[in-house]
Amino acid sequence: MSQLAKRNTISLRREWRLFDRDHAKPEIFLKLCDRMIEVGEFLLAHDVARAGLKNYSNHKALGQKAAHALCKAGSPYTATQILEELVSSGVRDVETQSLLASAYKDLCENTTDNTKKQQYADLAVARYEQAYLSQKSLESEDLSNLYYPCINVAFMHFVCMNYEKAREYADTAAQICLKILEQDESNYWVRATQAEAFLLLGRIDEALDAYALAVDLPDAKPSYVASTRKQALQISSLYEDETIRNRISNAFPTLGIVACSGHLIDTPGKSRRFPQEAEQIVRAKIEEKLDFMGATCGYSSAACGTDIIFLEAMSERGGETHVFLPFAKEEFIHTSVVRGGGDWVARFQKVLDDATSVHYVTNEGYYGDDGLFSFCNDVMLGFASMRSRGLDEVPNLLLFWDGKEGQEGGTGDVAKSWRETFQEPTIINSNEVLNLLDQLEEPPIPKGDTKPIFVKSFGDTVTAMRSVKTMLFADVEAFTRVKEELTAQFVEVFHGGVASMMQELNCKPEFVNSWGDSFFAVFEDLNDALKLAMAMRDFFGNGNWPELSETGHLDVRISMHAGPVYEEFDPLLKKRNFFGRHVNQAARIEPIVLPGSVFVSETVAALVSYRYGEFDFEYAGNLELAKDFGAYPVYILQRKGY
Predict the structure, then answer these.
(1) In this structure, what DSSP letter does residue 339 have?
(2) Residue 264 carries which DSSP code?
(3) Are β-strands 320-325 and 297-300 bridged in parallel, bridged antiparallel, or unpaired?
(4) Phi, psi of 163 (to 5 degrees)
(5) Per-residue pLDDT tens for 344-358?
(6) CA distance 8 to 320
């Protein structure tokens, strides 16, 4: 299977930005949505489908696509809500029922509550059986809508240890697939379903042969293979023979998600780590590692040296490139690109022009805040983690590094955080590169004027005006219905409850403020902010407050965002306070939060995905924030295991 199709050189994100959303027909929305799903851009596909639904609110296929994309992105609960609405409106076709069953299957897999796990399993089996039996009752010669609900009924019975039922349905699915393949051998999903049926029946060698045929077909898209691989690994993990899982795992290629970081080109007065003349050696080693990892999807910043070389190599492979900048472009060029001299600035501009996406931690300037480099690294690695989550694979980290700690936000920091979350990174040792360079009789001559330019840049100590913080806003939704004479009691419940919760945190917020039913806090540590947000949600959502509310409920809306903010003395409060665009962004999310929920920015979701395994999230959509702040991706925070 070729994972390096030319589709990677075209930015679907750019196409979506130029899309005529007001006049496009549903079929055009669906076509773009399908292309995004094929390459694993599930969240973007969901946004496309939801935008289409704004114009065509009752369009069945758009609703199905929106839910399907959410399931692929790891947001099955939200998907069930969309699909249950479709079913309630009378849409009960085989595809809708199967999608709904698939969402319940994912919930069954993800939940840690045994009672809920069984409930979700029962719902999945029921929906799959309804889909299968309704299609079977048509007695049509068209088997194309029969094989996949049948195999999924078999799968659910297998994981629920109803092995006799599982074998019965798996055998039927295998027979259906054989009939279809006699007419058309090129259908990926039919061949993959046949392989899964063999696996459920314990016919391992036949399953491996069928999977090999499936992934080699022209229509074997990366997201298709990822979905097949995930289910095959679930099945094989339930066999007592552990070698079965390894054999099945080796039958599938992966997308090859790679994040990269490493040394910048050397500047005067600094230690020798990456001289200009070592570029061709480093490029060859990076290309060798990318070949070994099967890389097709790259995440990196864009400083002169390792970053830009990596991005160029990924583009030459036909892969996706996702670029992350810690602050405004022009200042990044000044601090991290122009210092290399030569044509590094032109190359920087080219990798940005060719990028699949470009993300800014903040659109503001550098202002001497080296902490932004470290924060940018975490966000970049978080996005790589989010992408791998949707495709059910472990991302890779490639480093060009001398193995030393280095400065804040440097390669050493990246290596340390990666080890804590994933596996050992792949390292190209810069000392070995220097040894190779020194052994050459005639070192390579860099092209152009390569004289390094000395500028005040990354690693030079400057007093920062800002620092990275996490902001939390909360508002009690039912406050306006609380009787005036109960205000004091409400304050005791709300303020007193939050104060008690803060006592349980490892570190108190650096700043808190309240006004009426609203609360604002600023945290140094994201983990404490996440814990307080979930504690507040549960405190109000699970409580019974008949003395304060006619409904007995006091639902709270909570929003969170992280970014660089200004810390200044507030003459009104007589203490330090926090200001800036990122404070405003957190505040603008809060009014759109569903009562009883915690909505977080994409930055927070990325950080959660990378470093905070106790928590999870579901995609809410690319939503318009309050007060014309603009549209941003927003996620619903929850604990791991629903």
Answers:
(1) G
(2) B
(3) parallel
(4) -65, -35
(5) 999 999 999 999 899
(6) 5
